C-alpha cells in the first residue's frame, strides 16, 4: 500500500538519496544533462518543503519510495511557451522534481492520481533527453504543448493534461 504525504525537513536526507539514485539512473538512460550532478539542490527541496509543496510516497514500513513537488497556481517559467501553446488557461498544478528510489514501478501513476484529486489541470516539463518521461507523459494522456525555459535559460519540453 503506497501512501502520499507531505514531506518534512526530517525526511531531507532520505529524499536527497532518492535524487542521487535518480541522477545515476538518468545518466545510465542517456539523460545526463537534466539534473547533472546536483539538481535538484538541497536548497530547492528545503524551499518546497517549507512552502508545503513537497510530497513523499511511502510504503507500509514508512520507507520513502519517491518524492515530488506539486504546486497549484501560476508557474513563472510557464508564462512564455514557444513552438506551441497551452490549450487551457485555467488554474493548474505543476509537478516538479519527481524521482524514485527504483524499488517500485508506476511511480508517475501514483503521483498523477494524487495530483488530480487536488486539481484537474496539470502541467509538467522535462528535458528533451528524458525519453522515458516523455513516453510516460503521453501514455498518461498528456499532450505536448511546446517548449518552456527554466530560470537559467535551459529549454524543457512542456506537457499539459486537463480532465473535464
Question: Which terms summarize this structure?
Answer:
Aminopeptidase; seven-stranded mixed β-sheet; globular; 164 residues; alpha+beta
Describe the 3D structure:
It is built from four helices and seven strands, in the order βααβββαβαββ. It has one domain: Aminopeptidase. It has a seven-stranded mixed beta sheet with strand order 1-2-3-4-5-7-6, with helices on both faces. With 164 residues, it is α+β, with helices and mostly antiparallel strands.
Reconstruct the topology from this structure.
Blueprint: E1 3-6, H1 12-28, H2 42-50, E2 54-58, E3 64-72, E4 93-100, H3 107-116, E5 121-126, H4 131-139, E6 143-149, E7 155-162
Parallel strand pairs: 4-5
Antiparallel strand pairs: 1-2, 2-3, 3-4, 5-7, 6-7
**What is the CATH homologous superfamily assignment?**
Gcn5-related N-acetyltransferase (GNAT)
Q: Which segments are poorly predicted (pLDDT under 50) over 5 or more consecutive residues?
A: none
Summarize the main sheet: 7 strands, mixed
Report, as a whole number of angstroms, the end-to-end distance: 28 Å
The shape is globular
Amino acid at each position: 500500500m503506497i501512501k502520499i504525504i507531505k514531506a518534512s525537513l526530517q525526511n531531507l536526507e532520505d529524499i536527497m538519496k532518492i535524487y542521487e539514485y535518480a541522477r545515476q539512473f538518468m545518466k545510465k538512460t542517456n539523460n545526463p544533462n537534466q539534473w547533472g550532478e546536483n539538481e535538484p539542490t538541497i536548497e530547492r527541496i528545503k524551499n518546497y518543503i517549507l512552502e508545503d509543496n513537497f510530497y513523499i510516497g511511502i510504503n507500509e514500513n514508512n520507507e520513502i519510495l519517491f518524492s515530488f513537488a506539486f504546486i497549484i497556481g501560476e508557474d513563472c517559467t510557464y508564462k512564455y511557451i514557444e513552438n506551441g501553446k497551452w490549450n487551457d488557461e485555467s488554474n493548474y498544478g505543476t509537478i516538479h522534481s519527481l524521482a524514485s528510489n527504483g524499488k517500485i514501478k508506476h511511480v508517475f501513476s501514483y503521483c498523477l492520481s494524487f495530483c488530480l484529486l487536488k486539481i484537474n489541470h496539470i502541467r509538467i516539463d522535462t528535458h528533451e533527453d528524458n525519453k522515458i518521461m516523455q513516453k510516460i507523459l503521453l501514455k498518461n494522456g498528456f499532450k505536448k504543448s511546446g517548449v518552456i525555459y527554466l530560470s537559467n535559460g535551459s529549454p524543457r519540453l512542456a506537457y499539459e493534461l486537463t480532465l473535464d
